[in-house]
Amino acid sequence: MQHRRLSGHGPHVSEIGFGGWAIGGGWGEQQDADSVAALHAALDGGVNLIDTAEGYGDGRSEQLIAEVLRDRDEDVFVATKTPPDAGPWPPSPHCRWQDRYSAAYLRANVEQRLQNLNTDRIDLLQLHTWTRAWNDDPQPLLVLRQLREEGKINLIGVSTPEHDQACVIQLMRDGLVDVVQIIFNLFHQEPIAQLLPVAAETGTGVIVRVALDEGALTGKFSPEHRFPESDFRSQYFEGDRMARTVSRVESIRSDLEDFGLADQYSLVDLSLKFALSRPEVSTVIAGMRNEEQAMMNTRTARLRDLPDELIQRLHRHNWLRGVWYSGK
Ligand SMILES: NC(=O)c1ccc[n+]([C@@H]2O[C@H](COP(=O)([O-])OP(=O)(O)OC[C@H]3O[C@@H](n4cnc5c(N)ncnc54)[C@H](OP(=O)(O)O)[C@@H]3O)[C@@H](O)[C@H]2O)c1
User: Fold this and answer.
1) Residue 86 located in a structural domain
2) CATH number for the domain including 151?
3) Cys-Cys with 18: which of 5, 50, 178, 284 at CB 3.0–4.6 Å?
4) Over the stretch 63-81, which tens digit does the pLDDT of each residue have?
5) In a domain, 43, yes or no
6) How sure is the predictor about 328, in pLDDT bands with cuts at 50, 70 and 90?
7) Which residue's CA lies nearest to atom 41 of ligand 1?
8) Residue 8 pLDDT
9) What angle do CA 170, 173, 177 make, to 5 degrees?
10) 219: helix, strand or coil
11) What is the number of domains present in the chain?
């Protein structure tokens, strides 16, 4: 497993990190035994960064991670997230930070995160979402800075709202965040325009999420695939979205075949390696819900980098499909 620096002053983290959403719930049926096996297999494969959040099963993902880490000897970097207080998701331009991320709310929430993770200091605390409405008066981030001075948090981050990822550019330039968590994948290449260059310029760490487009970029789904209602993807891929996605995934597969590389890289490898092809990216947190997926995803980090000509070809798969998380 290769390592990269998480921000100019952060630790060295594994190129592949563990995405801890599905093990908390919301992705259809999930057995704890599979989640625990996935975590152990990922750590055995060299993963040393795990991403989680309160929102992943109301703390269940955090608790499972803490249980597994209690049995392990290695140093593992755990990033978690505090969601905004009750209100619209993502926060609307009319939301006030005083109602969503007040100092009292943030302090109480961080105590819960510490308890769930069974630790006295959080390696990275990310605000789970944000709005540029708060950019010019970013008080919540100053509260986190205070919590850092008190020794409760090490690094500070913001996870981008899907519809306006570029809103964190000002926060990076203002030196308010150590790390940003962003969507960057074969379909969603917009961060190349400015977000990634500004991360390099400011020494901000970049955690890439959804590199597999919620599983679709693995190439395993048919156009007719349907998810159970208990899986959030029943909305994410509702209507004709899965069919449209699969046809684009097949076009990506053709590119891999044209380059004669289909026997060396699976679509999972290609997707993870594409995200890692940018040096500004510190780690790619692939979601993993069982041992087999953890073994496949960690193996990717041992493969050679993709040829430049192939990366150039893959640029054509940038897809301006709008914001699916917000519904039709
Ligand atoms: N707003 C935010 O801050 C935010 C939002 C989203 C995600 N995240 C973070 O980013 C992480 C990664 O994103 P994600 O988990 O949503 O999506 P993802 O990494 O694009 O996709 C993960 C899903 O793909 C499938 N999969 C993974 N590896 C596979 C393999 N080798 N072969 C076949 N299928 C495989 C699994 O689901 P199935 O087996 O069920 O298909 C898995 O749950 C999350 O876990 C979470 O930590 C943060």
Assistant:
1) yes
2) 3.20.20.100
3) 50
4) 999 999 999 999 999 999 9
5) yes
6) very low
7) 215
8) 87
9) 85
10) coil
11) 1
